[in-house]
Design a protein that fits this description.
By secondary structure, the protein is α/β, with parallel strands linked by helices. It has twelve helices and 14 strands. The longest helix is centred in the N-terminal third of the chain and has 19 residues. The structure holds 3-isopropylmalic acid and magnesium ion.
Length: 359
């Protein structure tokens, strides 16, 4: 079996963490008897510099032709003052839309070895935190029309539209119900149905869709309460499903309270075609090029990619087990460093994981 993976290293620490992910793909392929061919394409600031646009046509073509796409990170201060239509973030939103990646899976888990890093009170952390946020990614207020700016009564006004069609809600709900089935069988749908019409429809469609999943326990929560419950009692959650904007916010919250944002992978999937996998952290321009970044989120994204897009559970587990083993042995990058642990750089961390996969 030969896999064709398109790499989008992007900006900041993107290229260095990507190099470690490639190292891991190579040793995993060797250990499990498959081959990986990679191609590389430009996205974000790197693409603006080289081609004047954050999402060149060639990048869309390379991504859609691949079996799966692995992304580093995009953006940085260099492009902060650029005109808004060609900001690096546009590249990210554009590739999601172009590939039809409507389902964004963002797991936030507390690694046993990193329990000290959790931002919650010890008695709350002790109850555990293992939540999968399923975020709708190609609709909602991010893409809704009308949007823009106008002048009315002598002042400027700007507006966006939060809009969801029934079909968009139903397809993301199905992804979430299926995911809950494979986990602990609980799904919490997050909305603002006490205020927003779009959320009332959201809730109605989720309830309707639930009839096909009687084995999944469904609950509903307003987004403000959900934000609070995530820090107050996160162990109550298994899978959460929500729209684009609420999912953007809640997934950052869930990730950061684990204290190990450098450890968390994510997947963006469409109804067919290649998926896109990326660490949930950003491009960290302050430490770029210094061999300080934590490559584990990208390495674990490779595992997620093998499992979800390529149906290769055994190699995925081998990567995850190797990453856990390295943590257990006390190796740490700066972001997860603790007293008595052994500090290593990005490249060494990648090699440690690779060695354990090869064994
Ligand atoms: C994310 C990011 C993006 C988003 C930005 C960079 C456009 O915050 O992936 O969560 O808002 O979706
Ligand atoms: Mg975000």
């Amino acid at each position: 079996m030969s896999l064709n993976i398109c790499l989008l290293p992007g900006d900041g620490i993107g290229p260095e963490i990507m190099a470690q992910a490639v190292k891991i793909m190579d040793v995993t392929a060797k250990a499990f008897g498959f081959t990986v061919a990679t191609s590389e394409a430009l996205l974000g600031g790197a693409a603006i510099d080289a081609a004047g646009t954050p999402l060149p046509e060639a990048t869309v073509a390379a991504c859609t032709a691949a079996d799966a796409v692995l992304l580093g990170a995009v953006g940085g201060p260099k492009w902060d003052n650029i005109e808004k239509s060609i900001r690096p973030e546009r590249g990210l939103l554009g590739i999601r839309k172009a590939m039809g990646l409507f389902a964004n899976l963002r797991p936030a888990t507390l690694f046993d070895e990193l329990r000290h890093a959790c931002l919650l009170r010890a008695d709350i952390a002790a109850q555990g935190l293992d939540v999968l946020i399923v975020r709708e990614l190609t609709g909602g207020i991010y893409f809704g029309e009308p949007k823009g700016e106008e002048t009315k009564d002598g002042e400027r006004r700007a507006f966006n539209t939060m809009v969801y069609a029934e079909s968009e809600i139903e397809r993301i709900a199905r992804v979430a119900f299926e995911a809950a089935r494979k986990r602990r069988g609980k799904l919490c749908s997050v909305d603002k149905a006490n205020v927003l019409d779009v959320s009332q429809l959201w809730r109605e469609v989720v309830i309707r869709t639930a009839k096909d999943y009687p084995d999944v326990e469904l609950s509903h929560m307003y987004v403000d309460n959900a934000a609070m419950q995530l820090v107050r009692a996160p162990h109550q959650f298994d899978v959460m499903v929500t729209g684009n904007l609420f999912g953007d916010i809640l997934s950052d919250e869930a990730a950061v309270i684990t204290g190990s944002i450098g450890m968390l992978p994510s997947a963006s999937l469409g109804s067919s075609g290649p998926g896109l996998y990326e660490p949930i952290h950003g491009s960290a321009p302050d430490i770029a090029g210094q061999d300080k970044a934590n490559p584990l989120a990208t390495i674990l994204s490779v595992a997620m990619m093998l499992r979800h897009s390529l149906d290769m559970a055994a190699p995925a587990e081998a990567i995850e087990a190797a990453a856990r083993a390295v943590l257990k042995e006390g190796w740490r990058t700066g972001d997860i460093m603790q007293e008595g642990a052994k500090l290593v750089g990005c490249e060494k961390m990648g090699s440690l994981v690779a060695e354990r996969i090869a064994k």
